[in-house]
Amino acid sequence: MQENYQKKTLGILGGGQLGRMVIQSAINYNIDIHILDPDPNAPCKSIAHDFQQGSLTDFDTVYAFGKSCDIITIEIENVNTEALQQLANEGKEVFPQPHLIKLIQDKRQQKQFYKDNNIPTADFVLTDDRDAVIQHAEFLPAVNKLGKDGYDGRGVQVLRSQADLEKAFDAPGLLEKLIDFDKELAVIVARNKRGELIAYPAVECAFHPTANLVEFLFAPASVNEKIEQKAKEIAIQVIESLDLIGILAVELFVTKSGEILVNEIAPRPHNSGHHTIEANFTSQFEQHLRAVMNMPLGNTELRTPAAMVNLLGEEGHSGEALVEGLDQALSERGVYVHLYGKKITKPFRKMGHATVLDENVDMLKERAMRIKEIIKIKTES
Amino acid sequence: MQENYQKKTLGILGGGQLGRMVIQSAINYNIDIHILDPDPNAPCKSIAHDFQQGSLTDFDTVYAFGKSCDIITIEIENVNTEALQQLANEGKEVFPQPHLIKLIQDKRQQKQFYKDNNIPTADFVLTDDRDAVIQHAEFLPAVNKLGKDGYDGRGVQVLRSQADLEKAFDAPGLLEKLIDFDKELAVIVARNKRGELIAYPAVECAFHPTANLVEFLFAPASVNEKIEQKAKEIAIQVIESLDLIGILAVELFVTKSGEILVNEIAPRPHNSGHHTIEANFTSQFEQHLRAVMNMPLGNTELRTPAAMVNLLGEEGHSGEALVEGLDQALSERGVYVHLYGKKITKPFRKMGHATVLDENVDMLKERAMRIKEIIKIKTES
């Protein structure tokens, strides 16, 4: 078989922490990575083979960047998909495929896709504006989502009662039944052009109570074999229905009656897979590389149970970041800290993450919570 | 405790594969690494925060490079230690300490140091030239080593009989009794300024029959607990006797009578520790960082048994490298390939390594040998 990925240049739209961890993996294969990001101090800046500062949403910028690469991928969905489609039309390899990025960018299309493909998901109605939301008071309590541009908890809100309706988004979005879930799971699946398909074991996500982003993650998920199997099957159903090449993180609800519903998907490395760097045979970042470059997919087994905690900027601190507690955390067996190279912190900004490995699953939660208490991202006082 | 390593710049003399793997680790801590190397295409080139092309043995070059860093370390011993001493005298942190690099550069001083500190090692005699070697025919069969500038098998030869004496090195060196060993082990130890000291489990090295460099490595070593313990004790004795800060790889012979003798030492990440990236809780590259930057040392336990195989340039191939067999190797569970970013291959050049993880120790040798047969570093035909 022709292993021509060795001579190919991979372009990534986005130079944040996800791209940074992809580059750390790519170093092992001598793969040159070019990065496009609007931030001149993006986390990938100093380690990319080539770094271009520019807009991810401007057609000409994305097109010109893509022309200089052989294979193009993303680490963020909010990119100019028309430019990517043009590049694909001209013969560049673009994975995930541009039309799928476009579909996933719009939560309305995403939901409709689940429905059209018999993928289990919470009941919903598409809403064009605030008035349309108000027309559907029968959905309450419900989750109101903006169609586009939501990220890390922005563009999503819970509407519990009539009184909440007036804060509904006054733009195209959707309203979905609030699921009284028992657990939130995530399953990452990967698929390459040569037809291989593989799923990671399900992980369990615990969300931050107010910031609406993953606070802790546990692998394995504490669910029975049947739920685990069903979650994987649904994730595989999604990637196959999309016919997507690359990796796909599928966030799932497990309802109190044991039903599994797809919440959202992300066609790129995802916060729910950070632990795979140390905990699994193949990290999600390497798997992303393997999938988009048509390398063989890697084994996804969990080597050691793990917990992951996001290291978020402390409330009340904005400015040049200082990490407290690293010494104490790094003294522990099986603690791995990943800082993202962001000079400036602000409340809830994702500044890094820590993974805890422990053969004893019962210790993971306690240890992860302790690490979160130990490591604080502040500013110099 | 002041964790001021976060704001420090680390300079590394040498930009080869060892520095490259240190940088991969340092990315997790936002540590900026500056590299000095004479090769404009050194493996660290594209991922170092700052890369300076220049001689490692020239006083002015090394001194000027060191002045721009806060902490200075090495990934190769053949550097200008006078410049490093000057930097240390002026208050820079230089680890390992310059006088120890100087001592280790000279195999004669190294051997004398073992003797002076009651560290078990093969009997030897220092020889100033070929005539001096010829005077010590009673040492035969013996190993003849050049005092300085040996590396990866160069500067070392076996003299079996009188007839071999005429090929003895005609320069300052040493002659040591050829040890009829049962096994070769290596133990990596680490020590930081705050007084922590830790040893890795012993590994077993299998050398290439002609090229005199490590071909395979197995962890754990197949030795009994007593030998394992004794090997660690000797490695700790060496680093403590030297009062060295950093990491130290200690190569050891286990004789057929169960004696353990120190062969050679290297005060830097070492080929015998490459498997630690995937196999141990803390890799040797991260441990090196932790030791020289006075971070807490990391746990050294083996997570999964491992074998490592060096990927050397094939004989008969010199020129632009092409890696064969990557696809097949990467399809296997627990196989990790690290390519070093060297464009040009030549026979026996270290172009990369592969690590195989397997819970079943008995499978490791067979799997490692198969990987060596699968992956070939050639040139385009």
Automatic annotation (TrEMBL), chains A, B:
User: What EC number(s) does the entry state?
Assistant: 6.3.4.18
One annotated GO molecular function is: 5-(carboxyamino)imidazole ribonucleotide synthase activity
| Protein origin, superkingdom | Bacteria
Keyword list (alphabetical) reads: ATP-binding, Ligase, Nucleotide-binding, Purine biosynthesis
Pathway participation? Purine metabolism; IMP biosynthesis via de novo pathway; 5-amino-1-(5-phospho-D-ribosyl)imidazole-4-carboxylate from 5-amino-1-(5-phospho-D-ribosyl)imidazole (N5-CAIR route): step 1/2
**Signal peptide start-end:** none
Domain ATP-grasp intervals: 111-293
EC class: ligase
Q: Give the catalytic activity.
A: 5-amino-1-(5-phospho-beta-D-ribosyl)imidazole + hydrogencarbonate + ATP = 5-carboxyamino-1-(5-phospho-D-ribosyl)imidazole + ADP + phosphate + 2 H(+)
Amino-acid positions noted as binding ATP in the UniProt annotation, renumbered to this chain: 107, 145, 176-179, 184, 263-264
Pfam family for this entry, one? RS_preATP-grasp-like
According to its UniProt record, which protein family does this protein belong to? Belongs to the PurK/PurT family.
Quaternary form?
Homodimer.
Instruction: Describe the task this protein carries out.
Output: Catalyzes the ATP-dependent conversion of 5-aminoimidazole ribonucleotide (AIR) and HCO(3)- to N5-carboxyaminoimidazole ribonucleotide (N5-CAIR).
Q: Which HAMAP family does the protein's record reference? A: PurK
Name by which UniProt lists this protein: N5-carboxyaminoimidazole ribonucleotide synthase
